[in-house]
Amino acid sequence: MTDRLITHLRHVDLAVPDLARQRDFFTGAWGLTTEHTDSGIAFLAAEGSPEQYVIRLRQANDKRIDLISFGADTPSDVDSLAERLATSGVQLVSEPGSLHTPGGGYGFRFFDNEGRTIEISADVAVRQHRKIEAGESVPVRLSHVVINSADPEGTRAFYEKHLGFRLSDILMHPRMGEMMWFMRINSWHHSLAIARCPHPALHHVSFEMRGLDEYMRGTGRLLRAGVEKIWGPGRHLAGNNTFSYFLDPHGNTMEYTTELELIDEDTWHPHLYDFSDPEVSDQWGTANAMNEFVARRSFNDPDKGLFVAPPV
């Protein structure tokens, strides 16, 4: 397995046909802050996060994942990883160099096995952030991203071999087999998860709240605002985190969560959880039942950005 050279999830970048509507959703009901704007682009920060932004929105004709960004400790780690990937035949989108996004830094981009654009960066300036106070129901940080994959076994192998991800847990079903793989890049239970799906797409993006009270207050605010809820509130078994899933204006699933498990990587052994057991999906039993209709809402539209690098 490749030595681990990436450290954490930085941001998820989305292209959408209606930038203004999407930005209003994230900065209104969802609770992010617009930190930087440019022509056709908005950079949105989480108040408690040192990252310059956790979501980037770009105006485009087609909805797509523009890129998923991970951090590295040093520019030399960035160079080492780029060299390893190129040597292994992974297609680079850009060579390591200076970044011209907010906070600057040094990084490069490449396509993963299914054609998603991935960015690795170091030396990005830390954003001035603050402690989220009791009762503030706004996201503290970006928690994790889940991707749909038509080849989840191959996608898992790619992220393990090339980026040093490790398996935390698997969800399976007696009839359908293994369906979701939770992958970690640090002591958080997962920063990335891979879901079996007929096509590659975004499954969901998750945002960490301060605590249970803030998580429930945020969930309630979205319900009162009429944002369409898919599933929740509840608490998963894998990761032991809470969940409330909602649809953004373009049909992407967004999640509020809190208390994602921190694990001891030296002693952790992955579990194989059977999610036909209701307590695996929701330990509390408070969420609406997980059924085929609920699951299909997060299949999303097939991603139109595969093996096509975003223009910025």
Low-pLDDT sequence parts: none
- Under CATH, the topology of the largest domain can be stated as 2,3-Dihydroxybiphenyl 1,2-Dioxygenase, domain 1
Q: Regarding CATH, which class of the largest domain?
A: Alpha Beta
| Beta-strand content estimate | 35-45%
Number of strands: 17
Can you write the helix and strand succession as a string?
EHEEEEHEEEEHEEEEHEEEEHH
Name the overall outline.
Answer: globular
CATH architecture of the largest domain: Roll
Largest sheet strand order: 14-15-16-13-9-12-11-10-17
Number of domains: 2
Averaged pLDDT: 96
Layout of SSEs?
Layout lengths: L5 E11 L2 H12 L2 E6 L2 E5 L9 E5 L4 E9 L2 H13 L4 E7 L7 E6 L5 E6 L18 E9 L2 H12 L2 E8 L3 E8 L7 E5 L4 E8 L3 H13 L4 E7 L6 E6 L5 E5 L13 E4 L3 H4 L10 H6 L15
Parallel strand pairs: 1-4, 5-8, 9-12, 10-17, 13-16
Antiparallel strand pairs: 1-5, 2-3, 3-4, 6-7, 7-8, 9-13, 10-11, 11-12, 14-15, 15-16
Can I get a quick summary?
By secondary structure, this protein is an alpha/beta fold.
Features of this protein?
2,3-Dihydroxybiphenyl 1,2-Dioxygenase, domain 1; alpha/beta; 312 residues; globular; 17 strands; eight-stranded mixed beta sheet
Question: What does the model show?
Answer:
The chain is of the alpha/beta class and 312 residues long. It has two domains: 6-122, 2,3-Dihydroxybiphenyl 1,2-Dioxygenase, domain 1 (Roll), CATH 3.10.180; 141-297, 2,3-Dihydroxybiphenyl 1,2-Dioxygenase, domain 1. The protein is built from six helices and 17 strands. It has helices spanning 19-30, 75-87, 152-163, 212-224, 278-281, 292-297, and strands spanning 6-16, 33-38, 41-45, 55-59, 64-72, 92-98, 106-111, 117-122, 141-149, 166-173, 177-184, 192-196, 201-208, 229-235, 242-247, 253-257, 271-274. The protein has a nine-stranded mixed sheet. The longest helix is centred in the N-terminal third of the chain and has 13 residues, at 75-87. The radius of gyration is 18 Å and the shape is globular. The model has no long low-confidence stretch (mean pLDDT 96). InterPro entries: Fosfomycin_Res_Enzymes, Glyas_Bleomycin-R_OHBP_Dase, Glyas_Fos-R_dOase_dom, VOC_core. One of its GO terms (molecular function) is dioxygenase activity.
